[in-house]
Structures are given as structure tokens and as C-alpha cells.
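Example record

One chain of 215 residues, shown exactly as stored in the release files.
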Amino acid sequence: MDADLVGYYGRRAAEYERIYARPERQADLGRLQAAVADGFRGRDVLEISCGTGFWTQSIAPVARSVVGLDLSPEVLEIARAKAWDAGRVEFMEADSYALPDLGRKFTAAFAGFWWSHVPRRRLGAFLTGLHSRLQHGATVMFIDNRHVAGSSTPVSRVDDHGDSFQNRRLDDGSIHEVLKNFPSEAELLGAVAGKASKPKVILTDYFWVLSYQAP
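Predicted C-alpha cells for this chain:
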């Protein structure tokens, strides 16, 4: 994972979950949390870039087990400090681009607000690596932001690869340039074409959901 992105989320760890408190997004968030709980009931879930465990809290009550991976020790410290059922939830430090072999294949995978940080040229390799850790037909779900004028941080630039960036200010006053892509429904379906079965995209006012079965 990009070291700058890891550093940014390490510094943002304590303020990260504030984004989920925005009043205008509550209806959408409730819909997403219900979809997550529905999709992972009884599953062994591999959660990519789990952050502070915000979405793990929707998965853990219904899943058989959850392994959350992230490369930032600061966000993992917050995630581990939350109340979890003993033996069902585990957090590990790991690079989402080089997923460890945990000695078993999972029946589901989830990533919340990670897809948008993956450079377009690396997306195919990331998906191949993720699918290699899953059982045939495993449920896969990604959720992420749509760009909403007046609500989303403005895009500051777009590079030669088509990746977009935002300038974000943290509580400590530091400003960080963060890669943040906003794919269309067609781009999402195109990214998993030939790599997935039964792909489906749901669009809400503020978010998108991509779900499918792994090859």
C-alpha cells in the first residue's frame, strides 16, 4: 500500500469515524449497514483495509468469523479496542496489495471505502490477489462514495492515468493529497467483467455498492 496513504490514515485514525455522523447521510448508511449484514450472514469474512472496524461492527454479529486486515497500526488499535465476541473477530496488520496466506480460503470478502483509493492501473491485480484468498463462489462486496457536489471534498486534480485526488485537512492542521476515485456504474461492472459472476451495483444518493460472486 502507498506509504503516504498509510501515514495519512494513521494520523486521521482518531477522527476517522466522524464522517459517518453527517446527518444527510444517515438514511443511506442505514441501507448500507443492512445490506452488509444481509450479505455476510453465516460467512467467514475477509475484510480488506478494515480501518477502525466501523463496518466490522455490522458484519461481526451475523458472520461466522471475521478477519480484518489493515496496514495502519493506529487504526487497528482503535478497532481492537472495541467490544467483540471472543474468537469470532481478529485483526491483523497486512498490506491489501499483498494479502497473506492465512491457511484457509474465505467464503466472503468485504472492503468499505477502499476501492476509491486503488489506482486504476492496479485494480485488476488487486482483485486477482483478493480472489486468490477466497473460495469459489464466495460473496464479495465493496462500498464506497459517490461524488456529491457540496458534500464531497472537491477533486483537486486528475493525473495522466485518470486517477483523481483530493486535498484533505486534518485536525492537526496538516494537508494531505489523497487519491480518491469516483467510478461510474459502468466502470465498476467493467472492472469485474470476466472476474466475477452475478455482479450487481446499487447506487444511493451518497454511496455505491458493488456485489458479486468470486470466480
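Notes: The longest strand covers residues 134-145.
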